[in-house]
Amino acid sequence: MPNSSGQPRKAGNGEDSIYWDKSKNRFIGAVSLGYTPAGKRHRPKVSGKTKTEVRLKLRELKKELEAGVKSSATYTVEQAVADWLKHGLKGRDAASIYTYRSLAKNHVVADLGRAKLRDLEADTLDHWLDEKAMVLATSSLQMVLSILRRAITHAQRRGKVFRNVAELVETPEGQSGRQSKSLTLLQAKSALSAMPGSWIHAYLALSLLVGIRTEEVRPLTWNHVKLDVPDGTMPHVEVWRSVRRTGETKTRKSRRTLAMPQQLVAILCSLRETQQAQRESLGLAWSDEDFVFGTPSGEQRTAEDVRRAFRSLLKEAGFENPKAWTPRELRTSFVSVLSDHGIPIEVIARVAGHSTTQTTEQVYRKQLRPIITQGAEAMDDIFPGAEEPKK
After folding, report:
1. Which run of H or E residues covers position 360?
2. What CATH topology corresponds to 185-382?
């Protein structure tokens, strides 16, 4: 507004001014906050295509200033994500960190990385998520949006930005996720006959014949595999740990002790002898605290190691497309084979650790658990002809 002399009046302290910047082809909005200790005029600015847009941004800017937030006009989404990945994942397990980094790099940073965090708008995110919904499963979409939300929250706590715009949008429905499938009985028998004597053959046998989760198999140690037992007691495996950060199983009900069919006992006895000989050849001591399916030097195998070896075994067994299968589908195959054999679903759920009955819950919470034998007995019937375990 002009003053009494006809010249435009300078904005007073705390007042707004909006003007057209020809060089930028945009409206500029500024708040006058007086002068800095160095004597330089302090005028935070925003820009927009219309005066209305600039007024809204000025309103947000004032809220930030009142809240004591000094958001940077140059701080980008990529910088926010990088800061969160560096400082916001403390205590997470390596697998989770790998997943977060991969999704952040390939989706959040790849698509939004250059955007200024302060200028990011809900409409932009809605459009971005709609595009992602055409290629990602709903679960992946949820994780991608969660990464962005957490990164912005991390920036908020450090005064980099005032609001978390990612909290204003919802996850759309994505593509159908990969459907789990099960081996047929014929396929299961073919897989069990492939690569005998190898660690992956034993890994497959344990997963298929007992039905424990892949995350429970990899950290399994020999002191939880009871092959040499007193008369009247069935050999069994204590499923008490997983690769989760805390080492605990998925739920307390998943902590269980399961009898092993005779075929599996013979396979594991042979694997133990082979592993002991390998350790001796490398000049390493063998211990019952070693991983059952560890590397020759005794390290725990990664999920990728298992997946690669599993698919090699399926190729050896004559599967047309081994890459279409994952180790976790051995567990669904276990359930399917038992169900087809007529085992009641209540028994299968109990063996698999899925039961929700009060009695089973109380049993699973005990440190020493009764050995659940139904699954092993059925597998001995389904896959006959097992060798007697070596003593």
Report:
1. helix 358-364
2. hpI Integrase; Chain A (1.10.443)
